[in-house]
Amino acid sequence: INLYIAGVGEYETVVQKYVEKDKRIKYFGFVSGKKKEELYLESDVFVLPSEWFEVSPVTIQEAYGYGLPVLATDFGSIPEHIEIGKTGWIFKIRNTSDLAEKISMIYSQRENLEKIRENCFESSLKNNFFSFIEKVCYIQGQIVKK
């Protein structure tokens, strides 16, 4: 198993130390554009260890758009965006044992990943910007014209 880490934050120096010790870990820092697309395409699962009160994380929809299942924390509204076993999995926030168990479980059942990837892509088609606007306008009693 290889671990690709993208993003910046207060733990960068800690991450760098692990990268030096273990060649299976690669740190890319902040990524966007072509490099971000390459990482999505090269990955099997997207891990979102967020500790932030996310309302509707764009990264989950992006991952689904690339057919990537999401393994994310049980924090904020993140679990509302994941169908357990169908589009991803949830682990307890700040619980590395639970995260490791979920990764082992996913790896042991990797023959199921292709179907889960299909589910993720289908989910991305249903939960796009326009479907969100339709839901918001319906709640406000307005009619949306496509």
Task: Chart the SSEs and their pairings.
Layout: E1 3-6, H1 12-21, E2 25-29, H2 33-42, E3 46-48, H3 58-65, E4 70-73, E5 88-91, H4 96-108, H5 113-126, H6 129-139
Parallel strand pairs: 1-2, 3-4, 4-5
Helix pairs in contact: 3-5
Keywords:
globular, two-stranded parallel sheet, 14% strand
Can you characterise this structure?
With 146 residues, this protein is α/β, with parallel strands linked by helices. The chain has helices spanning 12-21, 33-42, 58-65, 96-108, 113-126, 129-139, and strands at residues 3-6, 25-29, 46-48, 70-73, 88-91. The strands form two sheets. The chain has a three-stranded parallel β-sheet, with helices on both faces. α3 links the parallel β3 and β4 (70-73). α3 (58-65) packs across α5. The model has no long low-confidence stretch (mean pLDDT 90).
Summarize the structure.
By secondary structure, this protein is α/β, with parallel strands linked by helices. It contains six helices and five strands.
Low-confidence runs of at least 5 consecutive residues: none
What class would the helix/strand composition place it in? alpha/beta
Radius of gyration equals 17 Å
Query: Average pLDDT, to the nearest integer?
Result: 90
- Helicity level: 40-55%
Strand order of the largest sheet: 3-4-5
Beta-strand proportion: 5-15%
Silhouette: globular
